[in-house]
Amino acid sequence: MNRQRLLGLLLAGASFTALAHNAYALDGQEIVTNFNKLTSASGLTLSVDGSSVDGDTVTLTGATITISAAATQEPNDTILPLGDVTLEGVTEEEGDYSIEKASFADINLTEKDGGVTAKDIYAEGFYLPANPEPGSLDSLLIAQSFHIGAIAVTDKGKQVASIDEVTANYTLSDDETKIDLDASVTGIKVDASSAPDPKAQDTVKALGLETISGDITMKADWTLADGKMNLTEYAFDFENIGRLNITFSLSGYTLDFVKNLQEALKAAEENPNKEAGQQALGMSMLGLMQQLSYNGASIRFEDAGITAKALEYAGKQQGVDGAQFAQSLKGMAPMMLTQLNAPDLQAQISSAINAYLDNPKSLEISATPGQPLPVPQIMGAAMGNPADLAKTLNVQVKANAE
């Protein structure tokens, strides 16, 4: 036998051996077990009817997610059928699994006169360790990306709402100290012209909201060392309405905090006395809150024409035009605000309302204290003297600010 043929046979044999080993090593049930090691402490459990392996592709048949009552605070568990799940690019090393892509069956739910459909559903970049270390990053199930394609909602044979695409991307920094999130819901369309109530139909028409379209975007980051979570953008941007953006910052949500939270949920789940389990969970949550600090939050609305239409419509109901109705609101605001029993805040709100009604551009409320405040301190201030809470949080109300 010549050398070239011998080499070819050896390579072919090696390839066959590698493929055979991979097919033997990949185990669908083992993947399910690893998945549940990461999620069961949070109240999520995956179960399947069976599995099959083809090269580096594993198919889970009859997959179902069960969400425990303890996690949802509901009297019973919630069961979500997933159908068949296809896992591609699966590799295994010493019981640890890496999965390049998990594809889910299309959704086609029909109930009475309506239904919901969704397609092109998948998640990418999973790591499922055999023995996740509690309190470590590997103990969290985080996909690198998540995607849902076209979504449609129908009622009585008519499409009443749709979404073009839902995406979410998680990025871990090179030094593994920070996670960034970028998510969006694009191409939202809602047909509000067929409101069931004739009065509601009149309102929708007067406000020009027969068709509502827009997008939702989210950006956030999580620093693992100090547990600082920043929601830097959570925006609802709709045509001819406006853009509502929410920001929020919290510290203390560390991996250790997550570990303790998971342990509390697991203890509540395993308690045969569900009521006692829920009570214990509540006490544990109060204890965990001691570790959290509030850094700040804001909510800002940028008008895109809805305010003028709303004033005109409301004024018409009172027999006046929009400008006259705006003036009446400006006159009533100070009296209504006296219930707050916070003169400085009342003056801020009244001034902002006046400025906004005169020239509707933006309205923003922020609550950013000079330094992080322990969450229990804020809760205590809210229960003890709510009127001082605005000062504690440094609440600011502004109109038409850049």
Evaluate the radius of gyration. 27 Å
Low-confidence segments: 1-24
Residues in helix, %? 25-40%
Instruction: Assign the structural class, choosing from mainly alpha, mainly beta, alpha/beta, alpha+beta, or little secondary structure.
Output: alpha+beta
Discrete helix count: 11
End-to-end C-alpha gap: 82 Å
- Average pLDDT confidence is 89
Total beta strand runs: 20
Query: Main β-sheet: number of strands, strand sense, barrel status?
Result: 20 strands, antiparallel
**What overall form do the CA principal axes indicate?**
globular
- Proportion of beta-strand residues: 35-45%
Task: Detail the topology: elements first, then pairings.
Layout: H1 3-25, H2 28-39, E1 44-47, E2 50-54, E3 57-67, H3 69-72, E4 78-93, E5 96-104, E6 107-111, E7 114-118, E8 121-128, E9 145-148, E10 151-155, E11 158-163, E12 165-172, E13 178-191, H4 198-206, E14 211-223, E15 228-238, E16 242-251, H5 255-270, H6 274-289, E17 293-303, H7 306-318, H8 322-337, H9 343-358, E18 362-367, E19 373-374, H10 375-384, H11 386-393, E20 395-399
Antiparallel strand pairs: 1-3, 2-3, 3-4, 4-5, 5-8, 6-7, 7-10, 8-9, 9-12, 10-11, 11-13, 12-13, 13-14, 14-15, 15-16, 16-17, 17-18, 17-19, 18-20
Helix pairs in contact: 5-6, 7-8, 8-9, 10-11
Notes on the protein architecture:
- This protein is of the alpha+beta class and 402 residues long.
- Among the domains are: 18-134, no CATH class; 292-402, no CATH class.
- The chain is 36% helix and 39% strand.
- The protein is built from 11 helices and 20 strands.
- It has helices at 3-25, 28-39, 69-72, 198-206, 255-270, 274-289, 306-318, 322-337, 343-358, 375-384, 386-393, and strands spanning 44-47, 50-54, 57-67, 78-93, 96-104, 107-111, 114-118, 121-128, 145-148, 151-155, 158-163, 165-172, 178-191, 211-223, 228-238, 242-251, 293-303, 362-367, 373-374, 395-399.
- The chain has a 20-stranded antiparallel β-sheet that branches.
- Strand 2 (50-54) and strand 3 form a beta hairpin.
- Helix 7 (306-318) crosses helix 8 (322-337), helix 8 runs antiparallel to helix 9 and helix 10 (375-384) packs antiparallel against helix 11.
- Mean pLDDT is 89; it is low at 1-24.
